[in-house]
Amino acid sequence: MTTTTTKAAVTGRGRRIRMSTRDRVTVVLMVLIPTSVVATLVWLPAIATIVFSFFDWDGFGPFAEAKFVGTRWYVDAATIYPAFWPAIRNNVVWLLVLFFIATPIGLLVAVLLDRETSHTKFYQTSLYLPVVLSMALIGFIWQLMFSRDQGLLNAVLGTSIDWYGDPSINLYSALIATSWRHVGYVMLLYLAGLKGVDLALKEAARIDGASEVQTFFHVVFPVMFPINVVVLVITFIDSLRAFDLVWVINRGRNGLELLATEVTRNIVGEAQRIGFGSALATIMLVISTVFIIIYLRIVMKGDQ
Amino acid sequence: MSTATATATVTANPRRAWTKGRIATHVFLAFMALLWLIPLLYAVMASLRDYQFTAQFGYLSFGGFTLDNYVKAWTTGEFARKFLNSAIITIPAVILTLFLASLVAFVLARFSWKFNIVMLGAFTAGNLLPPQALLIPVFKMFQNIEVPFWLSESGTLLNSYVGLILVNVGFQVGFCTFVLSNYMKALPKEIYEAAMVDGASIWQQYWKLTLPLCRPSLAALATLQITWIYNEFFWATVLLQSGEKFPITSSLTNLSGAFFTDNNLVAAGAVMIALPTIIIYFALQKHFVAGLTLGATKG
């Protein structure tokens, strides 16, 4: 009777204790039930998406009768489908604006708030408020600003621009609305990160004669490496799955095509194109997987 | 060169003296804060004004204040029904998410198995996948799963509350498992030894010992999850096809017509929909912020 045969051993200061059968059943059920929920609703669909993308299936007959078409849907997407390249371009612009404009603003505000320490409650609250609102609601709140005939922006500027409708600018209007929320989110993450930076480090840099700006870029910012990665990954993934905002504006047409809206259009739209929609979805899956792996490596460091 | 002046500012006790730098910082922050408030304040302003008045005099005028938009939005948008729908979806989803997540988190924190890391990784990653990438299989699966009539009038999981609740749970369990298992790992192991000497079963250790100790992180997660699931738009829009089942977040489209939109009416609707999350944020600010940063910074 060696304890090594026990599958789940209790780690009480390195000692291993055998569990009763009832306890073992409890443990198995405690893991099995939630795991099967996640597996059925997240992991199996992810795999199914990849499989569907290589088949021609009408969605109604048995899948066994579906025809294998290889990479046909991917080729179609890149060559025939008119919304594909605009969607890719828009997703990239989305990412660039969030990454190079909204994220640095959030960081700057966090640094200033952290430095001031007191009397900053009001600033923090107002910058953070948009984060508790849904993206769909944010779309409507900004419609009040952007509306051509009734919007505040045109009333103040004396113009009659259709900010949400004009395909040459509506992407940037949507990005202003998204950034309104993203800045607060990034600010919050960095505020938490800055609180964790050891004061002694800053003090040491100061004694060495480093300016405040130098201290930030050479000491504080590198120390916040894990937060930087989390913010980076959140920015990438949020840009990739941007959907709600453009869907409430015009369902992602006319200048607002995104990968997420194109996938949705191919399943809930007029025609169900399962294989083609899955090919677009698989592209999203592959891109997100890269960032998920980076994220997991950082947040789970030390668990090994 | 410039370092000399910079050092001087740092040494001049930034906490008390109102240096030029500090004043500039406050001016900048105040400017940003006001800029960020404009859309919300403007929505509140617009919601309180009569459409005829603003149509005639423009939005930069003053006057025409009324509460009619709220009454009209509430009745024409069927807000009572839609808020109830949101509650029907959000409350069970949050409870189920926290319950399932705490089960796995307990086992992952309490025992060291070979697959711990893989499990935790798989759970956490699920939360980050783009939901649209899983839409097609989930949609087809729900269309084909038949459920009893009392569970869903449509006869399938598609277009049913149960289906939507399950999808929300599936997506949120990962994040909560990650946060809770980190929290549980920090609990002292000795408490379990004492419990085992007393002959407590695994279930009793989980239910009577661990869960009560996790109250702070459960509160933080509950606050966050209520907001997120209440705000959830994508799954509700695509999985519930009949408008009468829509939660409030997916319902604002009803107020903007196909050819003509009364923005004051939309504003009143937007304010009412925003109110629950803003109240939760102000009432439970501490929990809310703790929940978000808990996930990002490993508590």
User: What is the count of helical runs of chain A?
Assistant: 13
Largest sheet of chain B: none
Largest sheet of chain A: 2 strands, antiparallel
Give the strand tally of chain A.
2
From N to C, what is the helix and strand string of chain B? Answer: HHHHHHHHHHHHHH
Report the mean per-residue pLDDT of chain A as an integer.
87
What is the CATH superfamily of the domain at 83-272 in chain A?
MetI-like
What CATH architecture of the largest domain in chain B would you give? Orthogonal Bundle
Largest interface: A-B, 115 and 113 residues
Could you tell me the CATH topology label of the domain at 83-272 in chain A: MetI-like fold
* Poorly predicted parts of chain B: 1-14
* CATH topology term of the largest domain in chain B: MetI-like fold
User: Into which percent range does the helicity of residues of chain A fall?
Assistant: 55-70%
Computed CA radius of gyration of chain A, to the nearest angstrom: 25 Å
Radius of gyration of chain B: 25 Å
CATH architecture group name of the domain at 83-272 in chain A: Orthogonal Bundle
Strand percentage of chain A: under 5%
CATH homology-level superfamily of the largest domain in chain B: MetI-like
Give an overview of the whole structure.
With 304 residues, chain A is an all-alpha fold. Chain A has a domain at 83-272: MetI-like (MetI-like fold, Orthogonal Bundle). Chain A contains 13 helices and two strands. Chain A has a two-stranded antiparallel ribbon with strand order 1-2. The longest helix of chain A is centred in the first third of the chain and has 33 residues, at 84-116. Chain B is an all-alpha fold and 299 residues long. Chain B has two domains: 18-68, no CATH class; 78-250, MetI-like fold (Orthogonal Bundle), CATH 1.10.3720.10. In chain B, 70% of the residues lie in helices and 0% in strands. Chain B contains 14 helices and no strands. Chain B has helices spanning 2-11, 20-47, 51-57, 68-76, 79-110, 116-126, 135-144, 161-185, 190-197, 202-213, 215-231, 234-239, 263-283, 285-297. In chain B, helix 5 packs across helix 11 (215-231). In chain B, 47% of the residues are buried. The chains are: A mainly alpha (304), B mainly alpha (299). At the A-B interface, helix 1, helix 3, helix 4, helix 5 and helix 6 of A face helix 1, helix 2, helix 5, helix 6 and helix 7 of B.
